[in-house]
């Protein structure tokens, strides 16, 4: 039996936000401290926008 990873939509968003934020932090800033801060900023914006959008879609559907 093969092992299969089937993430939920939210888990997929968290994975994408993590990997994209790491890339953005490394490529957009020059010092390690600025890289970490910008990566955390990007991650929080990704996740925050997804949560707000999901609530908006829930309210529209209702």
Report on this structure.
The protein has 62 residues and is an all-alpha fold. It has one domain. It is 81% helix and 0% strand. The protein contains two helices and no strands. The protein has helices at residues 9-28, 32-61. Helix 1 packs antiparallel against helix 2. The chain is flat and about 45 Å long. It starts with 8 loop residues before the first helix and ends with a helix. 5% of the residues are buried. The mean pLDDT is 94.
List the helices and strands and how they pair.
Blueprint: H1 9-28, H2 32-61
Helix pairs in contact: 1-2
Helix content: over 70%
Poorly predicted spans: none
Q: SSE order in H/E notation?
A: HH
Structural class: mainly alpha
The strand count comes to: 0
Oligomeric state: single chain
Strand content: under 5%
Shape estimate = flat
As for the number of domains, it is 1
Number of helices: 2
Q: Give the termini separation.
A: 41 Å
Q: State mean pLDDT (0 to 100 scale).
A: 94
Specify Rg, calculated over alpha carbons.
15 Å
* Main sheet attributes: strand count, strand direction, barrel closure: none
Task: Give short descriptive properties of this protein.
62 residues; mainly alpha
What's the gist of this structure?
By secondary structure, the protein is mainly alpha-helical.
